[in-house]
Amino acid sequence: MTDTPTVPPTGRAFDVEHVLAGLTLEEKASLLSGLDFWTTQPVDRPEVAVPGVMVTDGPHGLRKQADSPDHLGLGTSVPATCFPTAATLGSTWDPDLLRRIGAALGRETRANDVAVLLGPGINIKRSPLNGRNFEYLSEDPVISGELGTALVEGVQSQGVGTSLKHFAANNQEADRMRVSADVDERTLREIYLPGFERVVKRAQPWTVMCSYNRINGVYASQNHWLLTEVLRDEWGFEGLVVSDWGAVRDRVAAVAAGLDLEMPASGGRRDAEVVAAVREGRLAQDVVDVAARRVLRMVARALPALDAPGTYDADAHHALAREAAAAGTVLLKNDVVPGPAGAHGAPLLPLATPADVAVVGELARTPRYQGAGSSQVNPTRLDDALSALRATTGADVPFAAGYTVDGADLGSGTDEAALRAQAVEVARDAGTVLVFLGLPASYESEGFDRTHLHLPAGQVALLEAVSAVNPRVVVVLANGSAVAVAPWQHLAPGLVEGWLGGQAGGSGVVDVLLGAVNPAGRLAETLPLRLADTPSYGNFPGELGHVRYGEGVLVGYRWYDARQADVAYPFGHGLSYTTFAYDGVAAEVLRPATADAGAVVRVRARVTNTGGRAGAEVVQVYVGDPAAQVLRPERELKAFAKVDLAPGESRELVFDLSGRDLAYWHPVLRRWVVEGGEFVVSVGASSRDLRGAVTVQVDGEDVRLPLGPLSTVAEAMTHPVVGPRVEAMVHGGGVAEDMLGMIGDMPLTVVADFGMGGFDQDALAALLAEADG
Ligand code: BGC
Question: Which of 92, 333, 644, 687 sits most deeply, having the most CB atoms within 10 A of its CB?
Fold first, then answer.
């Protein structure tokens, strides 16, 4: 194991192998579950002293509970910086920023005597309805993997660990503790696993947390294929697998499958089951030793930092949270609004004259900045947009609540209609009206899913009322996952997606509105027009204990592109206050491709800031494989780079695509293959705003299955050795042109049974022998 603590060993250090050799079976088994909700089991006797260490949530801030422990975010926790949720962080497309946030999270973790922060969560956003999407980064595995890697590297740079979660196929909250995600292997390999694979291979998280759900019928916690064959044997994971809290149904099966640590405590009962299984020969002693060794290594690895906890600068972390909130804010729309008669029109943002702005919407005053559940942080401070706007501009910005969030008590004589009427008066004469809308906490949370994509009706009614008296409206959204903007966005020439931006979300979004920060956030999830358009519609959240991943690899933008469906805003979209031009898009093939080959295609593109402001562009590289033996998505994100450019500045970017970037998972051969042929490499500003495309010819594998009795005539005709003979037989046998399709689809053994054209089972056996030879 590559143990590289960033601080020197201290007095509590111990030698893992020495300790392990001296432990009884009971002690080893006890190490494999928690002491309590948040602490690992110590071993405490005169000859051996292994401390217990604390692990806590995660992912976007530390949730260390002082008392009344629970894993649902109910009990209070120590103050900690509430960084933006993953929904916002995903939209930054900025690994460097996430590495800095990770380091800040690591400092807070360490300063609070915690060994492992339980995050990041990198599950794929399969449906916008998932109540926990705010904790996940993207609908795309490259984004999830790249940003997840950066977070893990950042946290672990501080000598504390991470827990990459929830492994795997935990893409909904409905029935999450039992449901079987029924998903074919190709889809797992191409969509749901590669984010985890990338983070594991590049950053070696100290721990991986297995999910609650079953995968094709087998609980993740008991899934040997997942936890041992894929995670360790294929990907080389060196750390420890911990269960999600309460995810273990059969502890002995779980240990045998590769689960090392069950959390939280099981009161010793489950440990006794492990001991009994070893004594009765149902579980190998070796397996217990390996798991105990992994727990001991994790503890040993954590001690140096725990013995030198250090401090952190809460103000600096708040400033970083603000930077991140602004960076993850996505300017969806900034239409030109007609000026007064005769004057040129202009977009409403950035706010040209902040002094004549009015703000409506309770969420501007009472921000919704994080999601509910185990990730809920007790923030060190809290910025709301209204105060931030007033403080930054010095103006006494008029405000009206317009609606209540989550049914707050309005007091006597006031109702929602009255609130709306007040808002209309505040908005009527303003130069620009900022309308803050979003999802109430009761709409989305860990533990349950949404049932629709709509904002509360009262909020939409407010927007309608305000825009009727003043069309100069900018809507600012707060929500943990996509909402349907189509029903009302025509009422707002400006639209800003702030997600759940953490404790500095209010000030961060104001930085964007005022232009102090030029927006550079990009959508890491598609905003669909309607729920019925979404890829998993009809297959989400499943029923009777099963959820069928019927859309296969067509998740997120892959689905909308395959169906040529309109969307509200595409994956990768986000506007800026400047403009960018692309040119010089080129692609060059460097070598023939196998799935494990390094750089295979070199892509170049130049991007220029053609506007008047400094800004950052996110250059996105997509790859498509138009002809393959399997259905492939129209295009898939394979690389991206965020570049800061001064006005007029140009930069040439170079991306190397590997064999794996071109490969698909072959469901029969059960490995990655690059099928040779044409690939289309596109470079653009979003998945639907491609600025250049190049077709390259790549030498790949000649992917073919071995010929057998069930191979079809058409398949046999393409065989390099016997193909020409089969073709001659077909054509020589006088098969009419219009019958070729039917014959071509027939298995060889059926043709042989019919004895067509003298081709019988003996002839088939000879043919197959020749093909193999
Ligand atoms: C959540 C995990 C969390 C754990 C501990 C579980 O319910 O799914 O993400 O880390 O509780 O709070």
Answer: 92
